[in-house]
User: Fold this.
Amino acid sequence: MANFSKSTVPQFSVEVYQNEYLPEGGREVNAIVTVTSTGGGTTGRRSLTGAPAATALPGQGPNAAVVIMVDCSGSMDYPPTKMRNARDATSAAIDTLRDGVAFAVVAGTHVAKEVYPGNGALAVADAATRAEAKNALRKLSAGGGTAIGTWLGLADRLLASADVSIRHGILLTDGRNEHETPEDLRAALDACAGRFTCDARGVGTDWVVNEVTGIASAMLGTADIVADPAGLAADFTEMMENAMGKEVADVALRLWTPVGVEIKFVKQVAPTVEELTERRTQANTRAGDYPTGSWGDESRDYHVCVQVPEAGVGQEMLAARVSLILPAADGTSQVLSQGLVRAVWTDDMVASTSINPQVAHYTGQAELAQVIQQGLEARKSGDFDGATAKLGRAVQLAADSGNADTAKLLSKVVDVVDAATGTVRLKAKVADADEMTLETRSTKTVRVKK
Assistant:
């Protein structure tokens, strides 16, 4: 393990928020786990694995690699400004690359082709290679179909050629994944998951929301809509800036539970809702790891729910230990930080029935994401009563939790009569962009008000 300067090493902390008190016979324990990474430097630093971080030191390889995948299918020519905006956005992302970061550009149709550097490897960012890459973008032209799994496969092969710890993809599409089966795309995602992270963007309104959000979810990245192609450059710049801020890769949330404790679910609840329960990999007999991807200076919240054995008043137990784990190539792992989830049985009804504010807040945020998706699905299927009820509940939850951004998006789909009671009317006409924006961003949450 390398020596680190305390001023530049990212430091992780774990805080656990819960009501540990249960009534006699109570079994369900809920906790919100806040994980924070702070203090990483921006230049000349080394990662926790000992590798050089995103800006390389002289004579050392970069610690980050990025592949930009640009949809070049025929629909990108309608209107022609879409392809031009995609080129401009890719150019802006290339300008945002730090010196020393490995990168490549891929053109995606029904096949995937390297645009730059084009030799089956990655270029290393500096003034010369950035200029060459931007010049190569002139080769990007629209024509052909869409098979996103092939784009991801090529990106994976390119990223695997780099001896780095941070591997990231940026994917842009404007249409349906029509030239491969859903099973083909799922197989590609399964093959790439855990090997690199990927942000996905849909431009315009002819793409499928659950395809784009499914890609981002599987690859532990972000998903969003860019309804107006003119906004692509700003969005690509922001995505690349975020990618350049990542300092530590492959951090896992490890949950250890004693005999008799059952894990009901583990999910990320901020900044977005992301189900992690089924992504568990066994670490040892009593512990499992849940992937969290790459980290920069940031904070995320996770909801852990476990079921403990019944116990009598006065008894207490450790219900779970939550640790942040950084695995190493030799099979060992480093514990970055940890927190404890407890259960204490009491006959004090006030203590045992009190709901922790963080738990209550994020339970509501998870429900908010769910009822938006259910409401929009009901609306599409013609179940307008069901859509009104679900979207009304969404308006109520958004108002209660102070999620102003989601409330604003909901107001473009329903007329709000009374937010406090969730009384709404469906709008007769809703722009495709407004409906798709609400669906794409439905999992975005707000933090607990302090």
Confidence is low (pLDDT under 50) at residues 1-8, 41-61. The first helix runs from residue 81 to 96. The CA atoms of residues 339 and 375 lie 37 Å apart.
